[in-house]
Amino acid sequence: MSAELSRFVRFGLVGAINTALTLVTFALLTHLDVAAAPASALAFATGAVNGYLLNRTWTFHAQGGAATLTRYVAVQGLGALCSGAGIALTTTDLALHRLPAECLVIPFVTLLTYTLARRVVFRPGGTRPVM
Hints:
This protein is mainly alpha-helical. It has one domain. Helix content is about 80%, strand content about 0%. The chain is built from four helices and no strands. The longest helix is centred in the N-terminal third of the chain and has 29 residues, at about 5-30. The protein starts with a helix and ends in a 10-residue tail after the last helix. The model is unreliable at about 125-130 (pLDDT under 50). InterPro entries: GtrA_CellWall_Glycosyl, GtrA_DPMS_TM. It comes from Solirubrobacter ginsenosidimutans.
């Protein structure tokens, strides 16, 4: 398996772990009577922190720091915006139901966030983006 494909698979596994962690955290917090909105925000933050740590150390073997964390947060924010916009587009303009729409949007957002993580957030060997 090529190094790039291996990184992409690890990126996908980290995403799956983050999703599971987010759902478990949300379930636990709501079980403890935390309101749904703050429970969701805290659960998402838990998954995001886990994603940063695992992607930095395992997926990309990169250095950390404030600048890397800032870039990571920006890319995750962009991914969330693209996901929301994609769902809005596919459920209204294409009249897809929510689950098929999500299944259509996820691969595009995953490729976008992987590419940005690889070239901008955890870029190898220096401060300039890899092009």
